[in-house]
Amino acid sequence: MNTAKQTQAMKILRTVMKSLRRCESWILPAITVFALLLTGCGERTAPLIEIEGPTMGTYYSVKVARPPAGMNAETLKRQVESALNEVIAELSTYDPTSELSRLNRNPSTDWIPLSPNLHAVIAEGQRIAALTDGAFDITIGPLVNLWGFGPEARPEALPTEAEIQAAQARVGWRKLELRVAPPAVRKARGDLYIDLSALGEGVGADRVSAGLEASGVDHYMIAVAGTIRAKGRNAKNQPWAIAIEEPLPDQRTVHRIVPVSDRAISTSGDYRNFFVKDGKRYSHEIDPSTGAPIERNLGSATVIGDRAMVVDGLATAFMVLGETRGPALAASQGLAAYFIVRDGDVPRGFGSPAFEDDLARSHQP
Ligand code: FAD
């Protein structure tokens, strides 16, 4: 478990929450997104429960406005953390006992049974892989680990070309075959290693959302790091508002604020999770075609849609595709995406046609 990363995320979260609780506004810092109530200081008009805590090597935050009778911070926290722990038990490569870790250790090239939940996430990974012609690839694990962005400690030296090629030979989304009934997966090589980190935060937000709705919660905002799912309105009876930040590693500056109700939004970027070696920055998003961290002018990609798992994966996929192929795919597929490109002193942001349409609709009364 990357405790340094978790401690840093919690430290940022606590500092900002503390400073902003003095007024009614709040800011939720995330890896690449932070959200805020737009209305400034003033009286809250409806009851609000707010909880936060560590999860998945990062943190979560949940706000419930107008909670149903009997719900309080303690019961909410228990419910939310139980849902997130379920997702960890299914999808974590950091937990050796998870279903995914057991699948990764299984050297069989026969059909391996899967739980319906793990099957659904792998299927979504395969769908995005096909959509992006393999730029997004959930078999990327050996390369993620080689570059030190997985559960193992980062080696002192950069990987050699031979190590990269050896890891690349174990990567390829077409080496995985899925069966629906009964749910199962078949690996073309026994040493494939699936990494669902690009989808897992979204899965967590969707799982928490389903639980809250089953409990009669109509107004909530769930953030699992940079992936957010919101429904209804905030305590001031306004749409939940999310700030997309400038893709700058050393500061947190709002680039653009977007209202989000009954939607999910996720941002991926190359400016929070990276390391620097000999003056060069290496990001955690890996290009399967080179076997190396992406080198892009694209600082961040934000995606809006119905399901958090889908927008979480697409945001990573757009980062890997980069500033030319990403926007082209968003336009051709009608995906609501916002890109921030560093091609001058000031980062330049632009939305796909579907992104601007989505926002125009959400501004309507
Ligand atoms: P995103 O952009 O959403 O995802 C980037 C990640 O996707 C990369 O870090 C890599 O893992 C993967 N990736 C890279 N390139 C590609 C590609 N081309 N195609 C597809 N995927 C790619 N971290 C810890 O330090 N400790 C933990 O205990 C821990 N537990 C976790 C449990 C779960 C269930 C999950 C899902 C993740 C966990 N993590 C943990 C990982 C950590 O939270 C990740 O940093 C995070 O999931 C990546 O999300 P992001 O928003 O930073 O980036």
From TrEMBL:
Q: How is the cofactor bound?
A: Magnesium. Can also use manganese.
Annotated residues for binding of FAD: 56, 94, 135-137, 195, 201, 286
What EC numbers are recorded for this enzyme? 2.7.1.180
**Membrane topology reported for the UniProt record:** Lipid-anchor
**Transmembrane spans:** none
Group of enzyme by EC: transferase
| Record keywords, A-Z | Cell inner membrane, Cell membrane, FAD, Flavoprotein, Lipoprotein, Magnesium, Membrane, Metal-binding, Palmitate, Signal, Transferase
The coenzyme or cofactor needed here is: Mg(2+); Mn(2+)
- What is one cellular component GO term in this UniProt entry? plasma membrane
Residue positions binding Mg(2+) = 198, 312, 316
Q: Where in the cell is it found?
A: Cell inner membrane
Matching InterPro entries: ApbE (IPR024932), ApbE-like_sf (IPR003374)
**Entry superkingdom:** Bacteria
| Record has Nucleotide-binding as a keyword | no
One molecular function GO term is: transferase activity
Q: Which chemical reaction does it catalyze?
A: L-threonyl-[protein] + FAD = FMN-L-threonyl-[protein] + AMP + H(+)
Indicate the family of this protein: Belongs to the ApbE family.
The protein depicted here goes by the name FAD:protein FMN transferase
Q: Which organism's genome codes for this protein?
A: Thiocystis violascens (strain ATCC 17096 / DSM 198 / 6111)
